[in-house]
Specification:
The chain is an alpha/beta fold and 227 residues long. Helices cover 45% and strands 11% of the residues. It holds the Pfam family Abhydrolase_1.
Length: 227
């Protein structure tokens, strides 16, 4: 949808997701030291596309925040959708995040997705969209998810938010019960000059539930950068 407006768009599959190769993990499936932010920064540089409009959803937003704070010359603007500071804000969240690795190992992708996907969407979500969200989640692979969970478990971007110098838009589904509206407001308040947008009728998977509305928010934001 953004590419139809003339933007050259890259949709990154994180290591262990989609068509990307699995990250190297230990025998028990752990990937304690995998740094997704370094991978993203290297990818931007290799593409020769910098500075980029960087968009991150959910834990991808945590990665994007780290990239923007550490590499200001690579990022023209930042959009965080239904994101968070990471799970290292307290021990309870760290423990809960790491427990998910064991759950996925025990249940397998389809059952893991069936148990969690309903909470990703709003109560009014169209059936076809909800099924697509669950189907996508069911494709998750243990090496990729383990690396993602460990990245989240050791990350708290709270101390880095003030270092984000790129113009920033924070979006969140009004019915997001995963990361929540309050967390997104915190991000917007802590990042200098950040704007905040609420996507009505959407849960955590707001990008999938309300793609037109989400794109409209982003395009309006990008337009202001050229004014």
């Amino acid at each position: 949808m953004l590419s139809t407006r003339g933007y050259r768009t890259y949709c990154w599959d994180a290591p262990g997701y989609g068509r990307s190769a699995d990250p190297t993990v230990s025998a028990n499936g752990a990937a304690e030291n995998y740094d997704h932010a370094v991978v993203v920064a290297d990818l931007i540089t290799k593409l020769g596309a910098e500075p980029v409009h960087l968009v991150g959803t959910s834990w991808g937003g945590v990665i994007a925040t780290v990239v923007a704070a550490a590499n200001p010359t690579l990022v023209r603007s930042l959009v965080l959708a239904d994101s968070t500071r990471g799970s290292a804000v307290n021990e309870e969240r760290v423990r809960a995040m790491r427990e998910r690795i064991g759950e996925l190992r025990e249940l397998g992708g389809p059952a893991f997705a069936a148990a969690r996907a309903k909470r990703l969407v709003s109560a009014s979500c169209e059936v076809e969209v909800a099924r697509a969200v669950e189907s996508e989640m069911a494709r998750v692979r243990l090496p990729g998810y383990s690396a993602a969970a460990e990245f989240m478990a050791r990350t708290d971007t709270g101390g880095r938010l003030a270092a984000v110098s790129a113009p920033t838009l924070v979006l969140v589904g009004a019915e997001d019960v995963i990361t929540g509206v309050d967390e997104s407001r915190l991000l917007a308040d802590a990042i200098p000059g950040a704007s905040f947008g609420l996507i009505l009728g959407a849960g955590h998977a707001a990008v999938q539930e309300k793609p037109v509305e989400t794109a409209a928010h982003i395009l309006r934001f990008w337009k202001t950068l050229d004014e």
